[in-house]
Every structure is written in C-alpha cells, then in structure tokens.
Design a protein that fits this description.
Elements lengths: L21 H10 L8 H6 L1 H8 L16 H12 L16 H14 L8 H16 L5 H17 L6 H14 L4 H14 L18 H6 L13 H7 L35
Helix pairs in contact: 3-4, 5-7, 6-7, 7-8
C-alpha cells in the first residue's frame, strides 16, 4: 500500500477491509469462530487484539502465510482505530471498458465455457483484475495476452455464419491456440485463473476474493471451501452464481473449527484476546 494511495481518513470501505486476505480469514474462522476478518462488526470488536497481533514482536503474529504488515499498514489500521473505526461510504470504481477488455472477456468465455463473465459490474471488475494480473505476470507479459486476444478475434472473424460456426470455432481454438507452443500454455493459465483464482501458483488477491468467485465452484455445484452463507459476498453467490440453501452442497451454518472445510493450515489462535 503506497503512501500516495492511502486515504487521509481510512475507513472500512476504502482501506481497512483490503488489508486482510481471504486466506487469513479462512485461518481465523477455523480457530476463532467469533473473529471474521471479512466482517466490519467483527474486526471493529476485535480491533485492538488484531493491532497487537500484526505488530512487530507479537507472540500471536498475524498474518502467518504471507509477509508481515508494513509499518504503513500498521499505522493505517491504528489510525482507523483512533478515529473510532469509521465504516465509510461504498467505493465503486468505474466499470471496465475498451476494446482490449472486451477481447479478453470474449476469449475467456470461449476458453472457460462460461458465457456470463461480464454479466454485471462485479463480474466486470473481476475480469479486469484477472486481465491486469496476467499482464503483469513476469512469465508472460503484455505481448502474450494481446496475441491471445488477436488470435481469437481472427478465429471469430473467419468463422462461417451458419450452424457449423460454434463447432468450427472450437476446432480452431484447439488448433490455433491450445496446440500452439506459446499460446497454449498461456491459454491454460487464463483458464486456471478463472477457475481457481490462481496464476502460476499465486492465489487470488484479497480485495476481490477471487478464490470464492472461482468458476470451479459453479462447475462442481459446491460452495467455496471455508465459506458459508455468512460470507459477505454470499448474496452475490446465491443470486448470480448458482448457490443457495436449496443446493445440497451448501452449508447452512459455519462448521465448528473449520471442520469439513478441507483446510488444515498452521494457525496460532488468538483465543482469549479482547479489544
């Protein structure tokens, strides 16, 4: 978090919620059922304990799986506490647009088999994040994503305008993209990004919860591991992504201690700490 990007008055909406990764949230839910790092009310109630845990020298260091918070991040969180933990108005960036974005969505839909990757503002923002991550990935870079988009554009342009069009496009994707020594591995990376929120083993970013929006959950008709109807984005999941209480694979309440989540990460409990 750069100095120039830090708001003068940090709020939950504009800064604080993005300090916590989705994986830290899963870890804490497993061992401390009352501490949900994705919940404003929970973080506010435990703010002083969290500040202690992220500070240097704490016996209960958080986070465990990534680098410790920087001095700036700690100062920002403390400033939030000192101003009585303001919630703040929603922050809604402008909707992504442009020819490159439209091309990325089009080729992503062809590769993943999902035709609604830009169906609403949240979906568009997620697509933009994946595109940005792929552009900055050191193993690939701008040239490959542009080459993938232009190759798919050419396939669509060349496709016959009759009933054979869809099958022809699929065949050309297999031959001109997936079988290509350069584009093939990159296209597979795009698919994995959409399905798992992972690019070359680097998992989804915290501010977008790319993990819970992974297409794999829709494909297997299941909820994201470690998340239930208490997740802040669950209404989006239920309304737009096929989840809901009627789904037999959907949890109606949080499993105690993270049981059945499939997650067994090394965790230090902050049980007994209070704000």
């Amino acid at each position: 978090m750069a100095d120039s990007d830090t708001p003068a008055t940090p709020t939950w909406q504009n800064t604080i919620r993005d300090l916590f990764t989705q994986y830290e949230r899963i870890q804490m839910i497993q061992v401390h059922i009352d501490l949900d790092l994705g919940s404003y009310e929970s973080v506010r109630a435990n703010a002083n304990s969290i500040l202690d845990a992220v500070s240097p020298g704490s016996a209960l260091r958080m986070p465990l799986q990534v680098a410790p918070w920087t001095a700036e991040q700690i100062a920002t969180f403390k400033a939030w506490i000192d101003t009585d933990c303001p919630y703040g108005p929603p922050v809604q960036p402008p909707a992504p647009s442009g020819q490159a974005f439209a091309g990325f969505v089009a080729v992503s839909q062809a590769l993943t088999g999902f035709s609604d990757l830009d169906s609403n503002i949240s979906a568009k923002m997620l697509a933009q994040k994946y595109m940005d991550r792929l552009r900055t990935e050191v193993l690939f870079g701008d040239s490959l994503i542009d080459a993938l988009i232009s190759t798919y554009d050419a396939i669509e342009s060349d496709a016959p305008p009759d009933d054979s069009r869809e099958g022809w496009i699929h065949e050309q994707i297999a031959n001109r993209i997936m079988a290509d020594a350069t584009l093939g591995p990159f296209a597979r990376t795009v698919i994995l990004a959409w399905y798992m929120g992972s690019i070359n083993g680097v998992l989804g970013t915290p501010e977008d919860n790319q993990y819970i929006h992974g297409l794999m959950w829709q494909a297997i008709k299941a909820h994201p591991q470690g998340f239930t109807n208490e997740a802040p984005s669950v209404e989006v999941l239920k309304n737009n992504e096929g989840y809901g209480p009627d789904n037999p694979a959907y949890w109606s309440e949080t499993p105690v201690g993270g049981k059945y989540t499939g997650l067994r990460l090394p965790i230090l409990s902050i049980e007994g700490q209070s704000s």
